[in-house]
């Protein structure tokens, strides 16, 4: 069962600015030297291993240019998690930023993504868990995403896996 949660309308302004700065720093730092099919497989397996070690029921996807290179649904997940992945990845594809960052930017303006983006909430979700796959010298070429935990935890799992993946490939 999915535990995705709709973020509240507004957090405090200082908290929003701190979160946005941290998320922007992560996007600048977590850039890949390349992403081929084997890299996507290793990244997806790494996320699955981390989730299993923690007993986290998540679904994972790694996508490049619209092609699903990795997909795994751990026990305890459902088709709802697949729908969340699709919605969060569409946000990354549209904005070129992490789904969590996009949602935080709307909240910092005193609104929500759902109220102000003019995008169909059945197709787009600016909730944490989808992160852009940015290849140095190329740009954003896809997304890696997790669904099943509260949004901050989905995002943190992806970031931790990217950090580990980068340390192993450099």
Description:
The protein is α+β, with helices and mostly antiparallel strands. It contains six helices and four strands. A four-stranded antiparallel beta sheet has the order 2-1-4-3. Strand 3 (130-135) and strand 4 form a beta hairpin. The protein starts with 12 loop residues before the first helix and ends with a helix.
How do the strands and helices of this protein lay out in sequence?
Layout (H helix, E strand, L loop, with lengths): L12 H17 L7 H18 L4 E6 L2 E7 L5 H17 L3 H10 L4 H4 L13 E6 L3 E9 L3 H19 L1
Antiparallel strand pairs: 1-2, 1-4, 3-4
Helix pairs in contact: 1-4, 2-6
Features:
single chain; 170 residues; alpha+beta; four-stranded antiparallel beta sheet; 50% helix; disordered N terminus
Short description:
With 170 residues, the protein is of the alpha+beta class. The chain contains six helices and four strands, in the order ααββαααββα.
Strand order of the largest sheet: 2-1-4-3
Distance between the termini: 37 Å
Provide mean pLDDT, rounded: 93
Which percent range fits the helix content? 40-55%
- List the helices and strands in order: HHEEHHHEEH
Rg over CA atoms, rounded to whole Å, is 15 Å
> Which structural category fits the helices and strands?
alpha+beta
Output the number of helix runs: 6
Total strands: the figure is 4
